[in-house]
Structure formats: structure tokens, C-alpha cells
Write a structure and sequence with these properties.
- The chain has about 300 residues and is of the alpha/beta class.
- The chain folds into 3 domains: about 100 residues, Cobalt-precorrin-4 Transmethylase, domain 1 (3-Layer(aba) Sandwich); about 80 residues, Rossmann fold, CATH 3.40.50; about 100 residues, 3-Layer(aba) Sandwich (Cobalt-precorrin-4 Transmethylase, domain 1), CATH 3.40.1010.
- It is built from 12 helices and 12 strands.
- It binds iron/sulfur cluster.
- Iron/sulfur cluster binds next to helix 1, helix 5 and helix 8.
Length: about 300
């Protein structure tokens, strides 16, 4: 039996550097993080044991002084304003890719005040809130092609995307929007900026290629992570012998054991995960699997 971990799985560089920053800053003194640093309970717990306190926006508003880390998703300008007003030191771990996108949106908003800024993304997602904030919350958020029906087709349009959206869905939105603009026969400008982060967009193809090479795939992901659910489905499409676990302990459940007992004799077992799955968790799953094999 060969057990391997997908080298492409796990945190993207934006999340990895935010965690590294948190660990470095914790050496210097107490530190809070505004929101979960990553959508993975075990990793949040690990950092909380190291001293990182996770706070919400209410706590942040009430805080006076202290140090707060802003996670990779980024924040709207109002968060920085609150920090200034409350004497809070900001440790900015916004991913450089998100930072650049925020700046692009801000510049567009300032240079084209009459235009409509449209963001393809999830309403209420932390990154999207940060992006909308660059436009004083005037940007429209489109979640699906049908939402385009709500749009005002008399003004120039600047379309951007949340960094973690699917490239195919973005293309569909662009094509629909182009058709709408053409059929309106109005002289408006449609400016499309594909701002999807390839770090995540290329994951599906890489993950499916990995899954196809395995006899059994163990996908490790958080129960609450939407990225984990989506990637698990893609994995299952490529290899129907894919199971989902959130922790090594789940490998010992009776139901899973019966699945594994049939499959453990298989030649190749691959372990992979979502963009929010830490490498150490996949390694623990591998170790647990090895223990089961020895027993
Ligand atoms: S997905 Fe891309 S843009 Fe988003 S945090 Fe990761 S590296 Fe940065």
C-alpha cells in the first residue's frame, strides 16, 4: 500500500503567510484576530492554544488599545478607521493579491464616479465586504447570472471578481453581461477584469489529476468550509472512491472502518484537502491510516 499526500493541497500562500505573521507577532505579545484566521476549526484551535484570541466585530468596536491581526481576506477602510479611533495597532496580514484588487477597485471608483462597479462574489463574504468598502459600499455584488437582471444598463460597467470564485462561472457572467449590453443598443462601456486568484482556480484540475491516480482518496476538510465541500465533490467526480473526513479520529468510526477495510488492501491511497486544510492535519490522517494498517 502506498499512501501519499497531494502536494498541491492545503493553504494558499496568502493564508500561509497570515498564519506565519500571527505566529511571529504572538512572540512579541498578546494578539487578537478579527474573525477566524482560516475556515478550519482545528487550525484556529491550534493558534488559540498558542495565545491568539479570535474576536468579532462587536469585540473590535469595544476594544481600546491592543493589537489586532487582519486576516488574508482583507478589510474595508472602516475597519482601519475604527482601529485608528480606538488606538488599536493593526497587524495587516491581508494577502497581497487581495490588497492589489482592493486598490484597483478603489482607483476605478475614484476615476469613474459615474460608472457602476460590479463584483462577482458571495454576498457577506469577508473579502467581498472589504472590496465593497473601497467603493463606499456602492458596488453591486453578483452571485449568479440571474442577478444581472437587476443591473442598470445605462451606465458604464466595471466588472471584478472575488479572488476565490470559479473561472467558468465568471466566464458565464461575462458572456451574459456582454449580450445584455449589446442588446441594449446603448453606448456604454463594459470593462472586465478577471481578478480570480489562480492559486485556487487551478486547484480543481490539480486535485482531479491527483485523485485519478489513486485507488482510494481520503479528502480532509472542515465541516463548515464551503471550499472543502466544493473540492470534495470535484474529487469524487474524478474518483468515486473518495471519502470525506474532518479529523484523524473519524478514521476510526465503525462506518468508515468498514469502508476502509474493503479498500485498505488497495495499492494507492491519496490524501488531499481543501485550501483551508492544514498540512499537519493531512499528515495526522496519514499517520492514523498507517496505524490502522499495522493493526
Ligand atoms: S486565494 Fe489567492 S488571493 Fe485569496 S488569500 Fe489565497 S493567495 Fe491570496
Amino acid at each position: 500500500m502506498i499512501v501519499s499526500i497531494d502536494t498541491g493541497s492545503g493553504f494558499c500562500f496568502g493564508v500561509t503567510s497570515a498564519i506565519k505573521k500571527a505566529e511571529e507577532e504572538l512572540q512579541k505579545g498578546s494578539l487578537s484576530c478579527l474573525g477566524d484566521i482560516v475556515h478550519n476549526g482545528q487550525e484556529v484551535e491550534r493558534l488559540e492554544h498558542a495565545g491568539l484570541r479570535t474576536i468579532d466585530y462587536n469585540d473590535f468596536q469595544q476594544m481600546r488599545g491592543g493589537r489586532v491581526l487582519l486576516r488574508a481576506h482583507g478589510e474595508p477602510p472602516s475597519t482601519y478607521a475604527t482601529a485608528r479611533a480606538n488606538g488599536i495597532e493593526v497587524i495587516d496580514a491581508t494577502c497581497p493579491v487581495v490588497k492589489k484588487l482592493q486598490e484597483r477597485i478603489r482607483t476605478t471608483y475614484i476615476q469613474h464616479p459615474q460608472a457602476q462597479i460590479v463584483i462577482f462574489g458571495k454576498v457577506g463574504h469577508a473579502e467581498v465586504i472589504g472590496l465593497q468598502g473601497q467603493t463606499d459600499n456602492t458596488a453591486i455584488v453578483i452571485e449568479k447570472p440571474q442577478d444581472l437582471d437587476e443591473m442598470d444598463l445605462t451606465r458604464d460597467i466595471y466588472l471584478f471578481s472575488q479572488t476565490t470564485k470559479s473561472v467558468d462561472e465568471f466566464r458565464e457572467i461575462v458572456n451574459r453581461l456582454k449580450l445584455k449590453v449589446e442588446s441594449s443598443h446603448l453606448d456604454i462601456k463594459l470593462n472586465v477584469e478577471d481578478t480570480i486568484c489562480r492559486n485556487v482556480a487551478n486547484r480543481v484540475t490539480q486535485l482531479q489529476a491527483f485523485a485519478k491516480q489513486q485507488d482510494l482518496v481520503i479528502f480532509v476538510g472542515g465541516q463548515k468550509s464551503s471550499n472543502a465541500k466544493v473540492l470534495f465533490e470535484h474529487c469524487k467526480q474524478a474518483n468515486p472512491s473518495t471519502i470525506f473526513v474532518s479529523s484523524p479520529a473519524e478514521l476510526s468510526s465503525t462506518e468508515l472502518l468498514s469502508t476502509l477495510n474493503i479498500k485498505l488492501s488497495t495499492q494507492k491511497i491519496g490524501i488531499c484537502g481543501a485550501t483551508s486544510t492544514p498540512l499537519w492535519l493531512m499528515e495526522q490522517v496519514r499517520d492514523q491510516l498507517n496505524k490502522l494498517t499495522i493493526q
